[in-house]
Design goal:
ten-stranded mixed β-sheet; 7 helices; 373 residues; 46% strand; alpha/beta
């Protein structure tokens, strides 16, 4: 279903989308997509980008492009686990994004996958193809309406970054305290191509487990995974990223910054496989515990099958600096204000290379989180 403009969407859907960073001013987006519960309710490409982008529900894309059936389930195994199997057996759609060869998309493509019904199990299959030589940014939010507390999101995503393409993919998760979340993502990066994944989650979630996997198959291919997490009380999060360096001159960086609070548990994983004599990878995890009731585990894994592979990792877990808090308090801030300033600094998103508009919206969320910490 397509509407002429976003004003026609349900008011509570628009309000929730704005709260999690979606800009409803269509002039600031190349394309906009909304999938609510089990149905796509809006999909539109801006007039200026009609010859550069295609965006539609995945089921519609399968009808339009028969060859797409041959690509589906090649980067994610449908028998990987019970969740991928469930999506394969019963899925409601998802987004299909095709950035055409050599297209230079100056505004982000925006998508919002939202749960608004209590106890709903949302099952989607998303496909992204960044054509040869294209450059684009995607901002996708997976959210739950604040009036619902319990549900499940099962999302399969397959991403092809073709030769010489550059794709920046930013995902913001905004869940509820009793929600189970199971994303399953596979990425293939071609010759001289670059894929940047930015993941942000600051809200409570009952149980989240994800480990996107990128295959750097192309010569000179590059994959970067950046994650910034604020794990709220009662949340159980098992988050990882995994890059396989197959191509000559392939490179990867895995960066995680995480904060845990009372009665929360975070496992931060990172895996790099070096399968070429000329490949490089670095993994870094920095964590803060705000109290003695949370648990943070960092699990870096480096595997090299070729002698020329250069792989490294750093991991550090600590607490907020009392010296820093004292200094800020001496400058006139209260203790709570000082803690908020340090948290904002720790959750620095400058490493993500976001466009100014996307960065501004995410910084609003960080300010809100820091102010109530």
């Amino acid at each position: 279903m397509t509407r002429e403009n976003l004003v026609g969407l349900p008011h509570r859907v628009l309000n929730e989308a704005m709260r999690v960073g979606i800009n409803v001013d269509e002039s600031d987006a190349s394309a906009v997509f909304f999938h609510v519960d089990q149905k796509t309710i809006y999909s539109k490409v801006g007039e200026a980008f009609e010859n550069q982008i295609e965006m539609m529900d995945t089921k519609d894309a399968l009808e339009k492009y028969p060859w797409l059936k041959e690509r589906m389930w090649t980067l994610v195994d449908k028998d990987k686990d019970e969740y991928t199997w469930e999506v394969a057996e019963s899925w409601s759609g998802g987004y299909f994004m095709y950035i055409k060869p050599d297209a230079k998309v100056t505004f982000p493509l925006q998508s919002c996958l939202m749960i608004t019904t209590e106890n709903s199990r949302q099952r989607v299959h998303n496909i992204i193809i960044a054509g040869e030589g294209s450059e684009s940014q995607i901002l996708t939010t997976c959210a739950q309406h604040q009036e619902t507390r319990e549900g499940a999101h099962l999302g399969v995503s397959e991403v092809w970054v073709e030769d010489r393409a550059k794709l920046s993919f930013t995902m913001v998760h905004h869940w509820a305290p009793e929600t189970v979340v199971r994303p399953r993502t596979g990425v293939r990066v071609g010759d001289s191509a670059e894929f940047v994944s930015n993941y942000i989650c600051f809200t409570p979630v009952k149980d989240l487990q994800m480990e996107p996997k990128a295959l750097c198959d192309g010569e000179g291919s590059k994959a970067i995974f950046n994650s910034v997490l604020y794990v709220q009380p009662g949340s159980n999060v098992d988050l990882g990223s995994w890059t396989v360096l197959n191509g000559r001159g392939s490179v990867t960086e895995l960066n995680t910054r995480a904060i845990t609070r009372a009665n929360s548990h975070l496992i931060s994983r990172g895996t790099i496989d070096g399968n070429n004599d000329d490949c490089r990878g670095h993994l870094e995890c920095r964590g803060l515990l705000l109290d003695e009731e949370s648990v943070l585990e960092a699990i870096p894994i480096l595997r090299a099958s070729k002698s020329g592979a250069e792989l490294s990792h750093e991991a550090a877990i600590g607490k907020l600096s009392e010296e820093g808090i004292t200094y800020l308090m001496s400058r006139g801030l209260s203790r709570d204000e000082a803690v908020g300033v340090l948290i904002r600094g720790f959750m620095d998103i400058s490493i993500m290379g976001l466009s100014p508009g996307v960065r501004q919206e995410i910084e609003k969320i960080i300010d809100l989180v820091a102010s109530v910490s």
